[in-house]
UniProtKB/TrEMBL annotation:
<dbReference type="GO" id="GO:0005524">
    <property type="term" value="F:ATP binding"/>
</dbReference>
<dbReference type="InterPro" id="IPR007861">
    <property type="entry name" value="DNA_mismatch_repair_MutS_clamp"/>
</dbReference>
<dbReference type="GO" id="GO:0006298">
    <property type="term" value="P:mismatch repair"/>
</dbReference>
<feature type="compositionally biased region" description="Polar residues">
    <location>
        <begin position="7"/>
        <end position="30"/>
    </location>
</feature>
<dbReference type="GO" id="GO:0005634">
    <property type="term" value="C:nucleus"/>
</dbReference>
<comment type="similarity">
    <text>Belongs to the DNA mismatch repair MutS family.</text>
</comment>
<dbReference type="GO" id="GO:0007131">
    <property type="term" value="P:reciprocal meiotic recombination"/>
</dbReference>
<protein>
    <recommendedName>
        <fullName>DNA mismatch repair protein MutS core domain-containing protein</fullName>
    </recommendedName>
</protein>
<dbReference type="InterPro" id="IPR007696">
    <property type="entry name" value="DNA_mismatch_repair_MutS_core"/>
</dbReference>
<dbReference type="InterPro" id="IPR036187">
    <property type="entry name" value="DNA_mismatch_repair_MutS_sf"/>
</dbReference>
<dbReference type="InterPro" id="IPR017261">
    <property type="entry name" value="DNA_mismatch_repair_MutS/MSH"/>
</dbReference>
<dbReference type="InterPro" id="IPR036678">
    <property type="entry name" value="MutS_con_dom_sf"/>
</dbReference>
<dbReference type="GO" id="GO:0030983">
    <property type="term" value="F:mismatched DNA binding"/>
</dbReference>
<dbReference type="InterPro" id="IPR045076">
    <property type="entry name" value="MutS"/>
</dbReference>
<feature type="region of interest" description="Disordered">
    <location>
        <begin position="1"/>
        <end position="44"/>
    </location>
</feature>
<feature type="domain" description="DNA mismatch repair protein MutS core">
    <location>
        <begin position="252"/>
        <end position="584"/>
    </location>
</feature>
<dbReference type="GO" id="GO:0140664">
    <property type="term" value="F:ATP-dependent DNA damage sensor activity"/>
</dbReference>
Length: 597
C-alpha cells in the first residue's frame, strides 16, 4: 500500500476549495445507469463526508464523516473492490449533504473553477461512482495539501471527548508501535495504519473551519472509528430493491421495513434503527443480547409499560443534536441578545432531559438481561446527577420552556436564579418596570377611549389589539398608527407605545446578555462532562429502538422476531401491507431453518 504524500498544512497557499456543483455529463452518468426513483427516499442528513482513495492497486479508501446536527464524527478505512460497493454502503449509512474529495480527483471538465496545479485527464472512478449513486449531492474539491494524516491525528487528539473509548479510537487510527515497525521496513504492519482516514479527517475539519465557519470546543466531539468487519454488508442497490428504509414509489410512504418497525419516540432511536437495518450487527453475542431485551419486554407487560411511560417525555427529542449545540463554538457575537436567548433556551432543554433520565433508568432497573443492566449503568452515571445539580443551582425551579408570547420571554428573563449576578437582578427589575409601564398605558387608553384594548407581545414588541365588533362600525380614535385588520381583530400601535417598547427592548437585551454570562459558565461545566451525555444519549436511543421492536412484535402478533433470519422479516413486511409480489428464484441450504413456524 502506498502512503499518501504528506504536505505542509501551514502553507500560505490560499484555500481554493469552493462549492462547485459537478455538471452531470454523459461521462459522469452513463445512459444505462439505473433510474434514481429511490433517491428521494434517502434519509435527510447533515453529514459532511471527506473521501480519499489511495494511489496503490489495493483500492484502500478512507472516510471521515461529520454530522453537523449531532456533532458525531465517524472514521473508516477499508479495502474496496472495483465497484466500490463497501464505500457506497458507508456513504448510505451516513447520508451526505456535502462530499469532499481532493482536487486532484477531478478533471478540468468536472472542476472548471479550480485554479492552480495540473488536472488529470479524467475524473477518478471512485468519484464517478459516488456521483452516480448520490445524484444532486454537491461535491467540493479540496486542495491536496489539506489531506494530511499528521494534522488529522492532531485534530482527533484535540477534539475527541474524554471517555473510556477515547484511547481505543486513538490507538486504532494511529498505533505508534505499528508506525515504528513500518519505518524499519515491516511492510505487513503498514495496513494497520489509517493514513487515508486520518488524511480525510484533516480535510474535514479544515473545511469546517474555513468554509462552515465552525470551530469545536476541545474534548467535545464523539469521534469513533468504525470496524466494518462487525456488520453485515448489504449493497445499496439491494437495500433499495428490498425497500429496507424507504419506499421506491413515494418519499413520504412508510411502506418499508423501517416503516413497519419504527415506533420509536426519539429521533436518535429512529436514526439508530435505520443504520441497523442497512448494516445489521453480525456478532452473535450482540444479537443475542438485543434479542433477550426484546423478549423481556414482550413477556413482561409491567416492564414494557414502565419503559413506554418513561420514554414519553423524550417524544420527538433529538438528544444528540442538543449535545452538539454545546460543542460548537461558531464565530458569532455572543453578546447579542439573540444568541444569548438561544443559550438560555439550550440550558432549559438540557435540564428537561437530565430530569427525565432517572425515571427512564428506574424503568429498567432490575432487568434480567445483561444489556439492560449495562444501559441502566450508563443512564445512572454520577456525572449526570452532577450536571443536574449544577443546573438546579443556577436555574429557577419554575423556569420552563413556553412556545411563544409573554410566557416565552418571561421564562428566559427569569431562568437564572436571583443573586447569581447583581447586575442581572437590576436589569430584570428595570425590565419589569418597563413592561408595567406598557400595561399602564393600555389601561389609560382603554379608559380614555372607552374601548376594551388589550396588549399582545409580538416579535417586534408589544402592540394593541381590539376586536372589530367592539367598535360598533366606527373608526379607531386618532393617535393610533400601523393599523392592521386580521381575523376580525385590529392590531395597531401608537407613538408612546413605540417609545416604551424601545425602553423595554433595551432592558430585555441587557437582561438576556447578563443571563448568558451565567449560562456560559454553566455550559463550560457541561462540556467538561459531555462524555456522560453522549453515553446517555446512546443508551436512550438503543433502549427506544429495542422497545419499538417489542411494540411491533406485540401489536402485529409476530412473537419474538428472529433477527438472524432476515428473510422472515421481509416476509412480515410484505404481509403487513398485503403486498402482491412476483416470486423469484432462491437458494435454500441445509443450514437454514424452515420459514414456517
Amino acid at each position: 500500500m502506498m502512503r499518501p504524500p504528506t504536505s505542509d498544512v501551514s502553507s500560505t497557499r490560499p484555500w481554493t476549495g469552493r462549492s462547485t456543483q459537478v455538471p452531470r455529463t454523459a461521462q459522469s452518468r452513463p445512459a444505462t445507469a439505473r433510474p434514481h426513483t429511490a433517491a428521494s427516499s434517502r434519509h435527510t442528513s447533515s453529514y459532511v463526508v471527506a473521501v480519499l482513495e489511495g494511489r496503490g492497486v489495493s483500492r484502500d479508501v478512507g472516510m471521515a464523516a461529520l454530522d453537523r446536527d449531532t456533532g458525531k464524527v465517524f472514521l473508516v478505512q477499508l479495502a474496496d473492490t472495483t465497484t466500490y460497493v463497501k464505500t457506497l454502503q458507508q456513504l448510505n449509512l451516513h447520508t451526505p449533504s456535502l462530499i469532499l474529495v481532493p482536487d486532484t480527483f477531478l478533471s478540468a471538465s468536472h472542476d472548471p473553477l479550480a485554479t492552480g496545479g495540473r488536472k488529470p485527464n479524467s475524473t477518478s472512478v471512485l468519484v464517478k461512482r459516488i456521483l452516480d449513486e448520490f445524484e444532486g449531492v454537491p461535491m467540493e474539491p479540496v486542495m491536496r495539501k489539506y489531506w494530511n494524516e499528521t494534522a488529522g491525528l492532531e485534530f482527533i487528539n484535540q477534539l475527541c471527548v474524554e471517555d473510556d473509548e477515547r484511547a481505543a479510537t486513538v490507538i486504532t487510527v494511529a498505533n505508534k508501535w505499528v508506525y515504528a515497525l513500518c519505518l524499519i521496513g515491516s511492510s505487513p504492519y503498514e495496513s494497520l495504519l489509517r493514513y487515508y482516514a486520518l488524511s480525510a479527517t484533516c480535510a474535514l475539519f479544515k473545511h469546517a473551519e474555513n468554509k462552515l465557519n465552525t470551530r469545536f470546543s476541545p474534548a467535545s466531539l464523539r469521534i469513533r472509528y468504525i470496524q466494518v468487519d462487525g456488520t453485515m454488508m448489504i449493497d445499496p442497490e439491494t437495500a433499495r430493491n428490498l425497500e429496507l428504509v424507504g419506499s421506491m414509489t413515494s418519499k413520504r410512504s412508510t411502506h418499508s421495513l423501517l416503516g413497519v418497525l419504527n415506533h420509536t419516540y426519539t429521533v436518535m432511536a429512529a436514526r439508530n434503527m435505520r443504520v441497523n437495518l442497512l448494516a445489521p450487527v453480525a456478532s452473535q453475542d450482540a444479537i443475542d443480547a438485543r434479542h433477550d431485551v426484546v423478549e423481556e419486554f414482550v413477556q413482561s407487560e409491567v416492564r414494557f409499560t414502565e419503559v413506554k411511560d418513561a420514554l414519553k417525555p423524550f417524544n420527538k427529542m433529538d438528544f444528540d443534536k442538543l449535545i452538539a449545540s454545546f460543542t460548537v463554538a461558531e464565530s458569532s457575537d455572543y453578546t447579542s441578545a439573540k444568541v444569548a436567548s438561544a443559550r438560555v433556551t439550550l440550558m432549559l432543554n438540557l435540564r428537561s432531559v437530565v430530569k427525565n433520565l432517572p425515571a427512564l433508568a428506574k424503568s429498567i432497573e432490575g432487568g434480567q438481561s445483561r444489556l439492560l443492566h449495562f444501559l441502566h449503568k450508563l443512564m445512572s452515571d454520577g456525572r449526570l446527577a452532577d450536571i443536574e445539580q449544577e443546573i438546579e443551582k443556577h436555574l429557577n425551579d419554575d423556569a420552563t420552556l413556553a412556545k411563544g408570547g409573554v410566557k416565552a420571554v418571561m421564562s428566559r428573563v427569569y431562568a437564572v436564579r436571583a443573586n447569581c449576578n447583581r447586575l442581572l437582578d437590576v436589569a430584570r427589575e428595570t425590565y419589569k418596570e418597563n413592561v408595567a409601564d406598557i400595561f399602564a398605558l393600555n389601561a389609560e387608553l382603554s379608559k380614555q377611549h372607552d374601548l376594551p384594548l388589550t396588549v399582545v407581545n409580538q416579535e417586534t414588541g408589544f402592540v394593541f389589539q381590539l376586536k372589530k365588533n367592539d367598535l360598533d362600525g366606527s373608526e379607531l380614535p386618532r393617535g393610533f398608527i400601523n393599523v392592521v385588520v386580521k381575523k376580525g381583530k385590529y392590531t395597531f400601535s401608537s407613538l408612546e407605545l413605540q417609545k416604551r417598547n424601545a425602553r423595554m427592548k433595551d432592558a430585555l437585551d441587557e437582561t438576556l446578555v447578563l443571563s448568558a454570562r451565567v449560562i456560559n459558565d454553566l455550559i463550560q461545566y457541561v462540556v467538561s462532562n459531555i462524555g456522560a451525555l453522549y453515553k446517555a444519549s446512546e443508551s436512550v436511543a438503543l433502549l427506544d429502538m429495542l422497545w419499538s421492536f417489542a411494540h411491533t412484535s406485540i401489536v402485529r402478533n409476530y412473537g419474538v422476531l428472529n433477527v438472524i433470519i432476515h428473510l422472515r422479516v421481509v416476509i412480515l413486511f410484505l404481509k403487513a401491507y398485503n403486498l402482491q409480489v412476483l416470486p423469484s428464484q432462491m437458494m435454500c441450504t441445509a443450514a437454514m431453518p424452515p420459514l414456517s413456524k
